[in-house]
Recover the amino acids of this structure.
C-alpha cells in the first residue's frame, strides 16, 4: 500500500526560491551598525577625516590619541585604519577594550603591502578581520557594506 | 549591503550589459570535453551569458560553437545532423561549418553563392584540460589560452565535473570566497568525506570556530587568508585565491588532491559550477577518482545523463533530518557541493543585497564586490582590460600552512601560492 501524497504549497518547499516568491519575504527596516573608526597614524587621520565628511548611519570617527574606552559602550565594531606608521600600542589598547566588551575588531591598512608590512604585523594580533589595500575607497566601501 | 543599482550591475551578464562585457573578455568554461566525445557526435545545446548556442564537433575533430537557431526559419539546430564537416539543419538542410558560415543551401541553384552571405554568430571553442573553453568577446581582444594548473597537468592527475546551480553566478562565487562557513556547514564532511578526512588541518578547523581573516590584493584578484590557532603559539592559515571573474581554489587538506571551482553564468538566474580536483605531482588514485564521480569532496552526485544534482530544489535537496540530528551533516543535505548550492539557491535567483547584514568577517566578499565593480566600470568607461585576463594571473595556488604568529601569510607563502610544475602543493 502506498502512502498518499500530501499536496504541498509552493512556499512549503525549496521550489519557493523564485523571484516571484521573493516578493513575500518580510520587508522590515534594517538598523545600522554602530561603528567606531579609529585612525592609528597621521596619514590615516587624513583619510578618516575625508571619509567622515560623508553621511553615515551613526559611525563615529576618532584619532588614536584622542580615543577613550567609554566610546566603545554602544559600539558593535571597531575599525582601525592605519598606513605605514600604525600605533601598535593604541591598537593593542583598543583591541583589549573590545575583547572585554565582546566587540568585533577590524583593521584596514592602506598602502603597498611591502611598505606597510610593519603596520600589518602590528595590527594582526588585534584585528579579527584585516584588509591590506591600495585603495582608499575601501574604507568607505567597508563602512557602507556594514551599514555603519 | 549593496545599492540596488550595484547589485544589478554585478549580477546581469547578458549581451550589452557592463558585467556581461567583462565576462566576454575571458576564456570561459563552456562544456566538459566529454560532452562532445567524438567526431560527428550529436550536437549539444549550450546557454552561456544569456546566449543560446549550439556546440558540435565536426568530421575533422574541429569544435564549433554558434547561434543555436538556423538563419532560415529559426529552428533549433539541435535537431540537426553533424555530417561531412558541418552541422546540417533538420528542416531544409541548410549546412553550417564550425565558424558559423553557411556552406550549403540545398534549395538554391547549384552555382548559387547565396550561402556565402549567410553566417551565424559563432565563437571559438578550444579544449584545454577536460574543458572546452570559449571567448565571446571581440576577436582582437582575445587573450592567450587559460593556464590554470588544474587544466595543465597530465590527464591522470586531474578530474573535472560540472553541475547546474539555480542561482545567479555571484551568489555561488561569494560562497567560494567565504571561508567562515566551512567550520559550520561542512563540519560533517571534514571527518567523513574520503577526499577530506585524515588531514591534520581538519583538527585546526574544527577546534577553532572563530577564525581571523586577512584579505590581500593580488594581480588577478585576491588572496583571502583564514587564520586559526595551532599548537605552540602558531597559526594555521588557509589561503583561498580568487582570480577574476569567477575562479576560486579551496585550500588543500593533507595529501588529498586540491580542488576549486569556476562559476559561469548560464543566464542571470542560473550558473554552471565547473569543479576540479587535481594533484600537482601524482596521478589521482582509482579510489579518489571514483569518489569524485560519486559526488564526494566538492563534486556533486548528478542525475544520470544530466548535470543536475540529485539533491536539487525539486526534491527539497533530499533533506535528511535524521542525518542532521546525528551530526553527520550540519544542514541535513548530503555532499559539500549541494550543501552550498541548497543555501545559495534558497536566497532566491538573485539575492536582494540591499537587505543583507554583513559583518566584518565578510571583508573578502566586500572587497571582491568592490574589485568587480571597479573592473566593470574601468572596462565600460575607459576600456581597461580587467584583472585575470592575462594567463600569468592563472598560475596561482591555494595553500594550507602553519606559520609562526609573527609571519605574514602573503610574504611567507609567496612560493606556495604560485603554480610550479612538478612541485607539491603546500598543505597540512
Amino acid at each position: 500500500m502506498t502512502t498518499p501524497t500530501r499536496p504541498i504549497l509552493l512556499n512549503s518547499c525549496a521550489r519557493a526560491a523564485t523571484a516571484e516568491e521573493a516578493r513575500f519575504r518580510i520587508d522590515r527596516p534594517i538598523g545600522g551598525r554602530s561603528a567606531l573608526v579609529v585612525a592609528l597614524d597621521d596619514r590615516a587621520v587624513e583619510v578618516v577625516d575625508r571619509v567622515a565628511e560623508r553621511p553615515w548611519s551613526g559611525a563615529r570617527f576618532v584619532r588614536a590619541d584622542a580615543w577613550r574606552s567609554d566610546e566603545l559602550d554602544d559600539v558593535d565594531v571597531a575599525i582601525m585604519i592605519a598606513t605605514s606608521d600604525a600605533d601598535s600600542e593604541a591598537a593593542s589598547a583598543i583591541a583589549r577594550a573590545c575583547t572585554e566588551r565582546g566587540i568585533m575588531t577590524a583593521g584596514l591598512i592602506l598602502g603597498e603591502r611591502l611598505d606597510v608590512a610593519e603596520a600589518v604585523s602590528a595590527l594582526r594580533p588585534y584585528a579579527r578581520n584585516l584588509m591590506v589595500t591600495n585603495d582608499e575607497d575601501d574604507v568607505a566601501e567597508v563602512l557602507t557594506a556594514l551599514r555603519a | 549591503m549593496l545599492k540596488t543599482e550595484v547589485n544589478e550591475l554585478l549580477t546581469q551578464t547578458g549581451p550589452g550589459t557592463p558585467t556581461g562585457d567583462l565576462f566576454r573578455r575571458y576564456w570561459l568554461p563552456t562544456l566538459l570535453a566529454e560532452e562532445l566525445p567524438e567526431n560527428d557526435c550529436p550536437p549539444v545545446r549550450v546557454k552561456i551569458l544569456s546566449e543560446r548556442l549550439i556546440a558540435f564537433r565536426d568530421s575533422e575533430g574541429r569544435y564549433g560553437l554558434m547561434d543555436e537557431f538556423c538563419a532560415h526559419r529559426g529552428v533549433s539546430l539541435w535537431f540537426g545532423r553533424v555530417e561531412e564537416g558541418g552541422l546540417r539543419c533538420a528542416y531544409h538542410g541548410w549546412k553550417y561549418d564550425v565558424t558559423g558560415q553557411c556552406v550549403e543551401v540545398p534549395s538554391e541553384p547549384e552555382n548559387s553563392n547565396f550561402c556565402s552571405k549567410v553566417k551565424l554568430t559563432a565563437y571559438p571553442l578550444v579544449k584545454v584540460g577536460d574543458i572546452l573553453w570559449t571567448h565571446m568577446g571581440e576577436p582582437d581582444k582575445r587573450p592567450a589560452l587559460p593556464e590554470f594548473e588544474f587544466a595543465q597537468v597530465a590527464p591522470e592527475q586531474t578530474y573535472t565535473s560540472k553541475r547546474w546551480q539555480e542561482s545567479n553566478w555571484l551568489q555561488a562565487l561569494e560562497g567560494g570566497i567565504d571561508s567562515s562557513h566551512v567550520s559550520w556547514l561542512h563540519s560533517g564532511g571534514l571527518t567523513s568525506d574520503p577526499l577530506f578526512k585524515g588531514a591534520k588541518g581538519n583538527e585546526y578547523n574544527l577546534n577553532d570556530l572563530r577564525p581571523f581573516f586577512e584579505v590581500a590584493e593580488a594581480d588577478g584578484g585576491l588572496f583571502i587568508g583564514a587564520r586559526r590557532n595551532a599548537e605552540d603559539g602558531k597559526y594555521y592559515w588557509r589561503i583561498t585565491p580568487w582570480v577574476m571573474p569567477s575562479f576560486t581554489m579551496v585550500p588543500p587538506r593533507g595529501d588529498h588532491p586540491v580542488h576549486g571551482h569556476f562559476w559561469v553564468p548560464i543566464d542571470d538566474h542560473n550558473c554552471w559550477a565547473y569543479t576540479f580536483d587535481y594533484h600537482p605531482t601524482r596521478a589521482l588514485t582509482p579510489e579518489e577518482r571514483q569518489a569524485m564521480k560519486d559526488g564526494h569532496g566538492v563534486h556533486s552526485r548528478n542525475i544520470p545523463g544530466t548535470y543536475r544534482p540529485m539533491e536539487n530544489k525539486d526534491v527539497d535537496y533530499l533533506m535528511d533530518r535524521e542525518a542532521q540530528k546525528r551530526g553527520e551533516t550540519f544542514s541535513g543535505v548530503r555532499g559539500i557541493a549541494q550543501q552550498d548550492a541548497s543555501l545559495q539557491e534558497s536566497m532566491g535567483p538573485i539575492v536582494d543585497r540591499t537587505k543583507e547584514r554583513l559583518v566584518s568577517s565578510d571583508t573578502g566578499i566586500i572587497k571582491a564586490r568592490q574589485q568587480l565593480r571597479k573592473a566593470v566600470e574601468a572596462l565600460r568607461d575607459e576600456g581597461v582590460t580587467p584583472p585575470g585576463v592575462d594567463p600569468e594571473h592563472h598560475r596561482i595556488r591555494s595553500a594550507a600552512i602553519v606559520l609562526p604568529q609573527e609571519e605574514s601569510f602573503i610574504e611567507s607563502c609567496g612560493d606556495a601560492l604560485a603554480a610550479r610544475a612538478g612541485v607539491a602543493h603546500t598543505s597540512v
Notes: Residues 124 and 138 of chain A are 18 Å apart (CA to CA). The longest strand of chain A covers residues 104-110. Chain A touches chain B at residues 13-15, 17-19, 21-22, 25, 27, 30, 33, 77, 79, 104-106, 113, 117, 120-121, 124-125, 127-135, 137-138, 141-142, 144-147 (CB under 8 Å). The beta strands of chain A are 35-39, 60-63, 77-82, 104-110, 129-133.
